[in-house]
């Protein structure tokens, strides 16, 4: 049985598909239908920012948010720690952190 995607992953798929264009709440509701709980959309976007490390920015009209977009569609990949020998000399081709 295939693993079902989480809600924030469904929202992320829509943002990536539309990138770099903004996506409105109505577009999310049209594409996800009953799968989306509209009042939870901000928390799904928070999950994208914190779990996927993809920067999502909002577009505001006054104080009201009218859409969201991904400012940089490339996810931030964590740099692996480099291996060092006993003297602390860098021994692999990976960048140290």
Question: How would you describe what is shown here?
Answer:
A hairpin with a 2-residue loop joins strand 1 (56-61) and strand 2. The longest helix is centred in the N-terminal third of the chain and has 12 residues, at 7-18. The protein has one domain: Winged helix-like DNA-binding domain superfamily/Winged helix DNA-binding domain (Arc Repressor Mutant, subunit A). It contains three helices and two strands. The chain has 97 residues and is of the alpha+beta class. Helices cover 33% and strands 13% of the residues. Strands 1-2 form a two-stranded antiparallel sheet. The chain has helices at residues 7-18, 25-32, 41-52; strands at residues 56-61, 64-70.
Q: What would you say about this model in short?
A:
This protein has 97 residues and is α+β, with helices and mostly antiparallel strands.
CATH architecture: Orthogonal Bundle
Number of domains: 1
CA-based shape: globular
Give the biggest sheet.
2 strands, antiparallel
Radius of gyration computed on alpha carbons = 18 Å
Mean residue pLDDT: 77
Going by helix content, strand content and strand pairing, the class is alpha+beta
Strand order of the largest sheet: 1-2
CATH topology: Arc Repressor Mutant, subunit A
